[in-house]
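Q: Got a minute? One more chain.
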Amino acid sequence: MDENLEKTKEDKIEKKQPEGLEKPGKAKTPHFKSEPSTEEAQSIVRIIDKDVPGDTSIWKALTKVRGISFMLSSAICTVLDLDRSTKVGNLTPEQIAKIEDCAKNPAKYGIPPWLLNRRKDLESGEDKHLVSADLLLQKSFDIRFLKKIRCYRGIRHGKGLKVRGQRTRTTGRKGKTLGVKRKKKGAPSAAPAAPAKEEKGGKK
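A: Always. Here it is, folded:
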């Protein structure tokens, strides 16, 4: 009997699961938080002043920045020897800094001047390319200058009308002209006008 009991005990010990393994469906959640991976860290990338999703291609991401067209974006990728289909999240900080410098100073990297958006500047006479906030600021300065010299375009800007010769008979009337006003129902009618007095010696 003692031998049989010892064998059964040995069988039970062998059937026990090894340490560290648990039954399926009863897995315990770890109490610690996993560190963010590199993909999560690069889910959003900031280029110049625009936040771009990390899974966007570099060619498309550059076009989201104000002042960069699809042609200039393609030229930047070609000059810097970047694959247009490369995801923005996979770029290093050094590559992003170089892309920003190329977007602000494209002439320095050999991009032709006909791709720039401000050629022969009025003050300096140089070919420049403006992006993001610099572009908006320069645009407001230009409109202010046109208003100051009182040219046709400046007058139209001051009146809030269309500047480039568009027709304004049927369009561009929002906030400028009013339609025919209808009388409200139940409104008191105007008092009748008093009859004019006849002059002395006039016809009866």
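A: Helices lie at 2-15, 38-41, 58-63, 70-79, 93-104, 132-149, 152-159.
Q: Perfect, thanks.
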